[in-house]
């Protein structure tokens, strides 16, 4: 008889956003007059840049004529897009990559989820805590995470990120094969300096580990000292795969386009000690299980690298970061301890008097009609924090701060 | 040290289309004046339907306003599209499905490639021969196919499809856990009757197997007796997962949208004999490793279910099928044995005098300047055949037939 992959049965139910919705709905049912503002959502709200809209209309028109029709594109993405990425996101920062090292995808979630296919199922892994759940769940599905005991996966090394280490995980005292890092970080909104990132690259070189570096929020970095790419660190090409997304950079959450970089230098070992390049593995994986991203989405992505496109997406990012500033200042004035929100669209707010995350969530919902995301939903190290996002509308943001102020003063 | 997934090293290099391109380029270099016509390509050439173009322009405009902007959609696809699929592709044929049994994707290749994640890596499998390479290669990557010996994978049961069985594979004399079937078939262009398909469903029920049924070409079926969906067979919902694509139905190879059906009734076993539904597994898989298909692509797909959309895609399909008729008649007149091309966009042509596929390919290239795909490229059972596709332009098709006639008569 056909047997199921029983690793799926080990997956913990992730009720975070469902639980939030349930509690918000319960509140709304008993307070039908209330105007609830959500600062919990991780999705963008502002329209796409005009240059992107224009490029997509043109791409749609291409599809209406025999001469300009585009059928199957390269599984790795169109060369014009890969060249624009290499030139603008890397060469402009002194990083030399070939277009063949860039793999265009339909968003970072697919690739961060699928990338584990390239390495043995029993490689050991480390993740920061709190964490974006995909990094762990995708590894539970292939058996790599082990079994779930006392709130943790047996084969996963958790790297707590908290106030005491300024949200920079400590280098483990043992070796691990795979390390997931995300900076600017979701959910804490914190960033990593070149010096701290260098420690990780050196650790990976010394231990022959692979770093899976999620740079989905790099466009929100304002501080010129903070690295946008792990390849700004010498030697990183040997040990790191980097994930980028246009979702937050250009509001593409509904358009679906991103990319993954696997440098030629990146290798891993076979059981008998041979070195093998991983880029050709990924190329083969994509050619077998993926058929490229929509032509229209790729033309949309190309448009954000035009002078107008760049300027327009910069404005939208500035809009969100102004939201972040308003929230940061408002909450700091209220004597709350706030992390993030300066080089990232997320604010990681310490609850007053060590209130548990979920309790504070309810208090704020009932007291100010503002929805946040309880930090503990991202892992045990998130307890006592909430996450706020700056992706909302300006007026909502201002009104939410006014209400929180009124509520906390009462 | 990080260890690679060594199953990737077992993958056979697939040089089929690269080898074709190389030979065609060599010919062109020595015959610069020649006007080579390709009847080998599996990609569509005609523009998208006007209703689809209109829907995509509207969807792009939605993304330009705050009110109609669409960010992350449901990982499973928008309900309006899932409802249109259920109503038009199933209910119209007397098949009752809930929208929750339909999972919208970015094309059938992703899902046929990823679906194997749901079952144990050591389940046994059977495939028809010749075959679309993804079914095997995706299983090589997770170790299920075994090792490659004498042109075959050790853990794969090959089901030859040839003239003697009218391209309908024989039910195996042993049990297998997973069976890949594709009808209308790529590459042979043949179809399966309800009676023959029923044998497979009954085999799967008896042996507790799962059928992966690829119906990507169902829109090309003309004969009212031929099933469009495996769910036309009683009991199939218990044992079959069905893959659909808009790529050939509506020319979406560059738009990227399709869907997979996993009925609620479909279950597989755990090691201790419990039954587990697979639809929730797939739901969890998609929510973890996929973020939905482009909003614009989903609106495009929705448009093909409107009265105008239906009529327009029917016209394009009729255009391709008229190409198929022209080729079929032309080749039959030349006393070639031709299969397919009546309910499918592919023609499977027997080479004269048992000429090997690659030899005939070269002869036709040099003799008529027409490119085909050598049948042996799809598997050993394809030797002595070539595949022609009807996705080209009408004039090319007519001209190719004229040249082949002249060449074969000479």
Structure explained in plain terms:
The structure is a homodimer of 410-residue chains. Chain A has 410 residues and is of the alpha/beta class. Chain A has two domains: 9-47 and 309-409, Aspartate Aminotransferase, domain 1 (Alpha-Beta Complex); 52-307, Aspartate Aminotransferase, domain 2 (3-Layer(aba) Sandwich), CATH 3.40.640.10. Helices cover 37% and strands 15% of the residues of chain A. Chain A contains 13 helices and 17 strands. Chain A has helices at 7-10, 16-30, 50-62, 79-90, 108-114, 134-141, 194-207, 246-249, 279-289, 295-303, 307-333, 357-368, 394-409; strands at residues 37-38, 102-105, 125-129, 148-149, 152-153, 156-160, 178-182, 210-214, 240-245, 258-261, 267-269, 275-277, 338-340, 346-350, 370-371, 373-374, 385-389. In chain A, the strands form five sheets. Chain A has a seven-stranded mixed beta sheet with strand order 2-10-9-8-7-3-6, sandwiched between helices. In chain A, helix 4 (79-90) packs parallel to helix 10 (295-303) and helix 5 crosses helix 6 (134-141). Chain A is globular and about 65 Å long. The first copy, chain A, starts with 6 loop residues before the first helix and ends with a helix.
């Amino acid at each position: 008889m056909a047997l199921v992959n029983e690793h799926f049965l080990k997956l913990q139910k992730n009720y975070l956003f469902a639980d939030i919705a349930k509690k918000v709905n319960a509140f709304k049912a008993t307070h039908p007059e209330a105007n609830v503002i959500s600062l919990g959502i991780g999705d963008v709200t502002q329209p796409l840049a005009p240059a992107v809209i224009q490029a997509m209309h043109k791409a749609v028109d291409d599809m209406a004529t025999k001469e300009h029709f585009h059928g199957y594109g390269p599984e790795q993405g169109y060369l014009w897009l890969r060249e624009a990425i290499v030139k603008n996101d890397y060469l402009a920062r002194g990083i030399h990559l070939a277009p063949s090292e860039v793999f265009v995808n339909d968003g970072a979630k697919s690739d961060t989820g699928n990338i584990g296919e390239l390495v043995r199922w029993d490689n050991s892994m480390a993740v920061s805590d709190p964490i974006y759940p995909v990094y762990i769940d995708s590894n539970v599905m292939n058996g790599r995470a082990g079994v779930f005991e006392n709130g943790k996966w047996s084969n996963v090394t958790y790297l707590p990120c908290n106030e005491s280490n300024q949200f920079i995980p400590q280098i483990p005292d043992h070796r691990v094969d795979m390390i997931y890092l995300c900076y600017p970080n979701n959910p804490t909104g914190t960033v990593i300096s070149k010096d701290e990132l260098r420690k990780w690259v050196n650790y990976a070189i010394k231990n022959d580990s692979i770093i899976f570096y999620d740079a989905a929020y790099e466009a929100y970095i304002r501080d010129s000292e903070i690295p946008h790419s792990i390849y700004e660190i010498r030697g990183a090409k040997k040990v790191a795969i980097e994930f980028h997304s246009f979702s937050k950079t250009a509001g593409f959450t509904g358009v679906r386009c991103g990319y993954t970089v696997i440098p030629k230098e990146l290798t891993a070992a076979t059981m008998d000690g041979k070195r093998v390049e991983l880029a050709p593995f990924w190329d083969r994986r994509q050619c077998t299980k993926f058929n490229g991203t929509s032509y229209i989405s790729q033309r949309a992505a190309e448009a954000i690298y035009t002078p107008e496109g760049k300027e327009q997406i910069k404005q939208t990012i500035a809009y969100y970061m102004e939201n972040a500033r308003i929230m940061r200042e408002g909450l700091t004035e209220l004597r709350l301890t706030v992390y993030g929100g300066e080089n990232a669209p997320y604010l990681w707010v310490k609850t007053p008097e060590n209130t548990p995350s979920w309790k504070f969530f309810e208090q704020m919902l009932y007291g100010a009609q503002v929805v946040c995301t309880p930090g503990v939903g991202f892992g045990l190290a998130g307890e006592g924090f909430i996450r706020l996002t700056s992706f909302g509308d300006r007026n909502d943001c201002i009104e939410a701060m006014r209400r929180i102020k009124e509520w906390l003063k009462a």
